[in-house]
Amino acid sequence: MHTTVLGRNLRTSLLSGVSALSLGLTGLAFSAHEATAVVARDDQAATVPVTYQCVLGPGGGATTTNVTAGALADGCASLTYVGYTVTDLTPAPFNLPGFIGQCTGTLINPRMVLTAAHCYNEAPQSAYGTGGTIRHAMSFSPLPLANNALSNWLFGTAMLNGQTNNGFTDIASVRYAPGNIDFLQGDIAIVTLANPVTSVGTSPILMSALDQQRDAIVNGYGLTGNGTGGATISSRVRRAGQNNVGANLSIDDLCFQVFGLDPLTCNGISLPQNLYWSDFDSLTTSPGVRANPFDFDLLPGASLPREAMTGGGDSGSSLFVTIAGRQVSLGPLSGSFRFFGAQAFGSYGTASFYQPAYLYANWIASVNPTRYYVAKAGNQTWNSGTGWDEFLDPNFLVLSGGNLVNGIPAADVGVGATTDVGLFNDGSLLPADGGAPAGLLTASANIASVADLGVQSLPARTNQLTDSLDLSPAPSVEGVPPAAP
Fold first, then answer.
1. Residues 200, 137, 97, CA angle at the centre, nearest 5°?
2. Residue 240: what pLDDT?
3. Integer Cα distance of 116 and 2 in angstroms
4. How many other CB atoms are there within 10 angstroms of residue 438's CB atom?
5. Closest Cα partner for 241 from 229, 255, 231, 249?
6. Selection from 395, 415, 458, 437 nearest residue 177 by Cα
7. pLDDT recorded at residue 469
8. Which of 101, 286, 367, 416 sits most deeply, having the most CB atoms within 10 A of its CB?
9. Among 86, 81, 102, 56, CA closest to 170
10. What is the pLDDT of residue 472?
11. Spatial distance between the Cα atoms of 267 and 88, rounded to a whole number of angstroms
């Protein structure tokens, strides 16, 4: 686990613009952590039973009751290329028998998965996959714990309901983006699967900068909950919800625009790489007034009908947008910010940040395990390399004239200068008016300080950047028995 100090104080304009101060709060924090599953807005957060016919089970389908109505993907038909990643934390450097690390990833082609480097980077790349000591695998099931699937992969227990495999695919290798700094910059990993997965579809990646603010889909297998309480419920179910890509800006930009601080004062380090950002908007109870006191509307835009925020275990999930009728991944989820000590991660007013794939497009192409070739014209020798031309992965796309075309930039930008999109609200601007349904209650007064998803509890007036990679014991209540002694 990693802990980094981030931030010293809040800008006056932000303090004056947030009604939370009227509740007598003394704990104010500018905090962030590695991302956690999808959290639904309060009015959408009721749990409902859902049966997945694509998951073999009694009566032809597996049922879960721990799914929120407002943040639910059709697990059998939508986002099927979004998968659950699991790491056995028994060996060094983790030395945690019976514990697993959990994240989310997106299948780009049958052997290539786009995810976050911080899900792995406490160990070197060579520790994973072929020749390594750390076991890691992926499942593209919407319910990866159903039918003993996870416990069978982890401990070799019996499978249920006539399954012939546990649904998990082992990995062959993991590669980290150059210049990776924990979950802050270059937080991209390319995972190569040991065997191709061809039954779930794939997602294209946008290899050029997003042209404008756009509505998006957030997703993952991590913690869930509601907008007031944040990410508090664990169930390992694939979920999805709506949000908006509100900005393409850096953490340095956040420090200056929101807090009026230079990077070294704010972070102790400059973090100039751009990131894609989204925030969790509550509904408005009257024009310019949000239902939740912590929601000062960091990014422009009103709450969407299925507004949701990421929560631990969603790390590595893609931010999806639709351009010219085609859905593309912008890059993997790294973490999220909160701005007050009593504000729960994954709750209203928090913000998530994603790594833009286009900044590392050429590196991604260079480590792509799947290669595409076409035969040269004329008579050629079939088994000679000179008879073939390699062409670009068809799922690598760039924007051109408002359309998506196959391509990548001439060179990687990395942490270099790139075009900014959007601005952060320092609290001086009124929140966008989204309208409130009849009978909506104002924010709950129960806003006691919340532990950071089991990592640590932040005392009042402590400004920290903490991770919350989902390093969870394998609890028997979720169908995973404890590790054998």
1. 150
2. 87
3. 15
4. 4
5. 231
6. 415
7. 37
8. 101
9. 86
10. 35
11. 32
At residue 262, the pLDDT reads 87
Cis ω before 93 (30° cut-off from 0): yes
Query: Could you please report the per-residue DSSP string of 385-441?
Result: GGGEEEE--TTEEEEETTEEEE---SS--TTS----B-----S-SPPP-----TT--
Answer for the pair 130, 111: CB distance below 8 angstroms, yes or no. Answer: no
Question: Are 318 and 329 contacting, i.e. CB atoms less than 8 angstroms apart?
Answer: yes
Q: What is the pLDDT of residue 69?
A: 53
Measured distance CA(276)–CA(331) in Å, rounded: 8
Secondary structure string (H, E, C) spanning 293-316? CCCCCCCCCCCCCCEEECCCCCCC
161, two tokens: 């309901």
Contact 125, 180 (CB under 8 A): no
User: Residue 471 in contact with residue 89, Cβ under 8 Å?
Assistant: yes
Structure tokens at 83: 């998968």
Return the pLDDT at 75.
61
Tell me if residue 152 falls in helix, strand or coil: helix
Q: How far is CA 406 from the centre of its chain?
A: 25
Report CA 351 to chain centroid distance, whole Å. Answer: 12
Residue 63 to residue 396: CA distance in whole angstroms? 36
List the beta bridge partners of residue 364: none
Dist CA 384 CA 225 (whole Å): 56
Tokens of 370: 């799947």
Beta strands 388-391 and 99-109: pairing type?
unpaired
Instruction: Please give the distance of CA 414 from its chain centroid, rounded to a whole number.
Output: 20
Q: How far apart are CA 200 and CA 84, in angstroms?
A: 13
* Pairing mode, strands 31-34 and 3-5: unpaired
CA 457-121-298 angle, 5° bins: 50
Inter-residue contact 461 to 28 (CB < 8 Å): yes
Long-range pairs for 381-390 at CB < 8 Å and ≥24 separation? none
Q: Kind and range of the H or E element at 216?
A: strand 214-220
Contact status, residue 147 vs residue 57, Cβ threshold 8 Å:
yes
Mean pLDDT of each 10-residue bin along the chain, 485 residues long:
28 26 28 53 68 59 60 69 92 86 94 95 92 93 83 78 74 93 91 93 96 91 85 81 92 89 84 94 85 88 87 90 95 90 87 95 95 81 77 94 93 82 84 54 24 24 31 29 30
Enter the pTM of the model. Answer: 0.82
